[in-house]
Amino acid sequence: MSTKDDEYDYLFKVVLIGDSGVGKSNLLSRFTRNEFNLESKSTIGVEFATRSIQVDGKTIKAQIWDTAGQERYRAITAAYYRGAVGALLVYDIAKHLTYENVERWLRELRDHADQNIVIMLVGNKSDLRHLRAVLTDEAKAFAERNGLSFIETSALDSTNVDLAFQNILTEIYRIVSQKQIRDPPEGDTIRPQNVEQIDVKPTMNTDSVRRQCCQ
Amino acid sequence: MVVKIELQECLRDSPKFRLLLEHEEQSIDQLEQRLDKILKVCGSMIDSGKTYVGQQSLFANSLWDLSTHFKDDPEVLSSLNKLIHSLQEMNKFHTILLDQASRTVLKNLTSFIKKDIKTVRDFKQHFEKISTEYDNVLVRNSHTSRSKQQEVDEVEHILLAVRSCFGHQTLDYVNSICVLQTKKRHEILSTLLSYMHACTTYYHQGSDLCDDLQPFFKSLADDNRFIFMVVIKYEVVRKRSGEEQETVMEDDLRICTVKPVIDGERRFCFEIVSPSKSHILQADSKEMYDAWIEALQKGIGAAIQRIRSSEIESHKKRENRNSSFYGSDNDTSANNNNNKIKKIRMWEQLLKIPGNNFCCDCGCPNPSWASINLGITLCIECSGVHRSLGVHYSKVRSLTLDDWEPEIIKVMAELGNNISKQIYEASVPEGVVKASRDCPGTIREEWIRTKYVEKKYVKRFPRFSADQSSPNSSDGLMEVRKWSVRKIRRRPRSVNSREKKGKIVEKQQIANESGEPVDSATNVNTNDDQGKIRDNTAVHKSLAETQNDLLLFGSGLEKQRISNIDLSSDQESTEGEENEIVDEEDISKLHPNLLLYKASAAHNIPIMCEALALGADKNWPNPDDKGRHPLHAAVLSGSVMPCSYLLLNGAKINAQDQNGKTPLLLATQEGHTAQVCIFLKYKADQHIEDEEGKVPLSIAEQKEHADIVTLLRLGRLNEEMKDSESGVSGDDMFNYVVRDFSQLAYSNPEKLHRTKNDAE
């Protein structure tokens, strides 16, 4: 597993979804261990990896869940999506079918994940230029229509892999930190429980009071 | 005091005058010293007073700060503001008082010292000067010779002049002393008087302020009391209307209990206890107290009644929900409520188990506690005694307050008070005083201790002690050569997964048994009906009975079984089992240890319970079976229950057999997801290698068992998160997924089966 990050300010759970063979596990290993395996077997069950990044001087620990794309491993769907604040929906730019199935994955997210989950559409295998079957603009337009962010990556030559994770984590961070200012968290979500709340109390009264009394 | 210097004496400048004068001067010095001291003390008094006032105003400011907390609660806010305002008012008065002190005491006394006393001092200086001069003249006069008439005349003139001057000065001086001595009386008193006036004003103002506030205070106190009353009413109203919204003191009366508070000092107190908190309330009178308790109890009863109808609906509702990680979790409360409903349902279900609606030890009705490792229900008093035995004897849990994992519920469902009593009270000698509902604590304690710690009333195997020729022939024991344990079967919930045993699922428990082909002479094949007849005709004193020469443990259990309990069934337990009993053993090997081992393999919890009661070692490695512990045997049985039961009773979770395999590894190897789940829940070490150097994860990956792989990886992730300092979230996630899995294993086991089959 990845190196231990002993301290972090936020812990975000991010899931990797998409059809079998689009390269989810390699995206994960590239991001967390900088490894790539051309011959990697299909994932059994769920794999986990973590990596911490810095955003605004805060340490954000990403706990990434990588599941098998195959139907047969779906017994724990609910637990898989539970508490996930981000999802990388991956397709293979060289296989149009995997792109067509993106809608199906979006439905699954709608059914099982939190409605506010941040989703990024990831066209992987961008190194296979000569085999491209999904146009960048088409995917980009689709992402815009559905309110997703979009990026093309290559786990093989590392293009945009870090950037993809960095972007989604930053986006989540922005939302969560703003949300925290608006209303303090409650409940049993994955939101970082180790983060100390800084409660900014309105400064009303104190000044006027001081003037109004005795001095 | 009044100056008593006579003018004559002044003019004469007599020694007496000088003495008096000296006396007066000393008195004035003393006065000055004391006044100085007063000034000093008064000064520091005012200083510290100012500090106090400053702090008090800070106090008020901090209260203002507090009031912002109530900015959304206008009622509290206005009251609070008024109170703070009053405090500030009082503070102001205090400031004025200090000001007065400084103006009266300090100013007056200082001016007295600076002016009046100084005047006297001035006169004294003059007096002393003239006195010296007078002395000089007198000396000169006396020294002047008679021969020098002109000199004599001159001296006489000077003498006359100086004497007269001296006279004036003396008089002036004495006068100033007199004035001072008179003035001091008035001055000091009037100073103090005005200070006292200031004090009076201060207290008066305070009193006026308090008078003004009195109605407000009263209304505020009433308000508070009023609010309190409203709170209670809310509860009553809510429980009547069944609304979940108006949460005031308790969300849900259904999980509350009411009980009198006797040990407190106050009278008419009662307590409303819920899982998370308790409220002690006080009534005005005995009548009110009784009325409240009755009303609340009725309310709770009514609320519980109503749940059942709405329960299914709300259950459906919950399943359609998704939690929201950004938004305020609306459904947490719904989930909580659902949990509460579940708890109450669970409680009801557990009380349905034969014998469970009366405390297992004293017979008190409606017990609300349980011992999870003994599988019994207890009243609160007995649960206290059980607690005192220590967790290795009894693990006490609340039926109403605690969370219950499915596998523990299952163990409870397998046992129950009737079965437990058959084991632990099998041979109670006559004359032994059993605990009863209102018996004294010592009897209760003695009874429970003897029962579970000394295990005195457990029926020993007569077959051990008695040699083969003992006159036990009436029991047919003479012929018994073999023994075995019957496997427990429960009615599966979902029938579809069990077509191949269509006949078997008809019965909740099958009473047939089949011998091993090894010993064909004892091979008895009976069908269900015959088995039942046999069971019905047999006399069951113990949980075992004999059939031909086979002593079969667990066959007598059917009678205590209940037919309609809606607790989850042990789905996995009978996968691929063809035999209804475990391998037979020679009667000479009948020993609690082997009995426990066999019963574990047969996932027969009552017999496991009996074996433990007979003193079986829960960590006994079976030398004839690869040194496996009962827990290994339980794993191989395929059922979660015996694993759960053994773990509850302190079996070692990381025990290795001769091949170095831990129960977790064995469960992984066998592909028993639900068992893996509970082992991980009990924090089994998944890094222990077997003799081939394999760990559970490598085996699961090799076998491509996705769910077990996931669980094991999740366990590792959890360890990793825990290693880092703040791994709470990881732990939560782990627990959640494990819970998810175990729920799945109990409610929809076919899903896990499907996964397994697909993977193969």
Q: Architecture of chain A, CATH level 2?
A: 3-Layer(aba) Sandwich
Give the strand tally of chain A: 6
- β-strand amount of chain B: under 5%
Question: In the CATH hierarchy, what is the class of the largest domain in chain B?
Answer: Mainly Alpha
Largest interface: A-B, 55 and 59 residues
Distance between the termini of chain B: 120 Å
Decide which structural class fits the backbone of chain B: mainly alpha
Q: Portion of residues in helices of chain B?
A: 55-70%
What report would you give on this structure?
The complex is a heterodimer of chains A (215) and B (760). By secondary structure, chain A is α/β, with parallel strands linked by helices. Chain A has a single domain, classed as Rossmann fold (3-Layer(aba) Sandwich). Chain A contains seven helices and six strands; from the N terminus they run βαββαβααβαβαα. Chain A has helices at 24-33, 77-81, 96-100, 102-112, 136-145, 161-182, 206-212, and strands spanning 10-18, 46-55, 58-67, 86-92, 118-124, 149-152. In chain A, strand 5 (118-124), helix 5 (136-145) and strand 6 (149-152) form a beta-alpha-beta unit. Chain A is globular. The N and C termini of chain A lie far apart (64 Å). The relative contact order of chain B is 0.04. In chain B, a hairpin with a 4-residue loop joins strand 2 and strand 3. Helices cover 59% and strands 5% of the residues of chain B. By secondary structure, chain B is mainly alpha-helical. Chain B folds into four domains: 7-224, Up-down Bundle (Substrate Binding Domain Of Dnak, Chain:A, Domain 2), CATH 1.20.1270.60; 235-311, PH-domain like, CATH 2.30.29; 353-453, Orthogonal Bundle (Annexin V, domain 1), CATH 1.10.220.150; 587-752, Ankyrin repeat-containing domain (Serine Threonine Protein Phosphatase 5, Tetratricopeptide repeat), CATH 1.25.40. Residues 225-248, 306-332, 463-478, 490-541, 558-577, 726-730 and 753-760 of chain B have low confidence and may be disordered. In chain B, the strands form three sheets. Chain B has a four-stranded mixed beta sheet with strand order 8-9-7-10. In chain B, strands 1-2-3 form a three-stranded antiparallel beta sheet, covered by helices on one side. Chain B has a three-stranded antiparallel beta sheet with strand order 5-4-6. At the A-B interface, strand 2, helix 6 and helix 7 of A face helix 2, helix 3, helix 21, helix 22 and helix 23 of B.
